[in-house]
């Protein structure tokens, strides 16, 4: 079991975290075992961004003003990413919308009630495979993760 943790500024050293971006994943989770694949924390240890692979995946996003509230985090009901199968997942954030494209076929959109000029602090850490203080870890054979700035 390996949990990877690194400083966020190592990935975004030349610029701020992009306001609009995509996260591209190729994953196969252990069947029936939900866990966070990715968590980005600010300097104070507050989780600002996260992807929970689950029977109904959650996209956690919290900008510098605390928006959206946890009750408003986008939940992709009916999308089972913990079925033991390989999946290609693209999660794209543009303005106040988050879009998930599953296996290059199915497209799901949710609103993202964030600030007009949202910021993600790059002075914290990125944790792959869990969240700080979580007991559960993401068990995977392999995964590929790419952040892409939307121009």
TrEMBL record:
UniProt entry tagged with the keyword NAD: no
Keywords from the UniProt entry: Repeat
Domain Thrombospondin-like N-terminal: 1-149
Pfam families: Laminin_G_2
Taxonomic superkingdom: Eukaryota
Protein name listed in UniProt: Thrombospondin-like N-terminal domain-containing protein
Originating organism: Chiloscyllium punctatum (Brownbanded bambooshark)
């Amino acid at each position: 079991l390996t949990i990877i943790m690194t400083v966020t500024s190592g990935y975004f050293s030349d610029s701020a975290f992009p306001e609009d971006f995509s996260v591209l994943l190729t994953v196969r989770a252990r069947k029936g075992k939900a866990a966070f694949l990715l968590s980005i924390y600010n300097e104070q240890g507050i989780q600002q961004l996260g992807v929970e692979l689950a029977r109904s995946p959650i996209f956690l996003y919290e900008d510098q003003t605390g928006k959206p509230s946890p009750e408003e985090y986008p939940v992709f009901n009916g999308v089972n990413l913990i079925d033991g199968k390989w999946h290609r997942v693209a999660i794209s954030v543009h303005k106040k919308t988050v879009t998930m494209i599953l296996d290059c076929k199915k497209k799901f959109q949710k609103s993202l009630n964030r600030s007009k000029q949202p910021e993600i602090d790059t002075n914290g850490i990125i944790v792959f495979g869990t969240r700080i203080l979580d007991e559960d870890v993401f068990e995977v054979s392999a995964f590929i993760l790419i952040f892409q700035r939307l121009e």
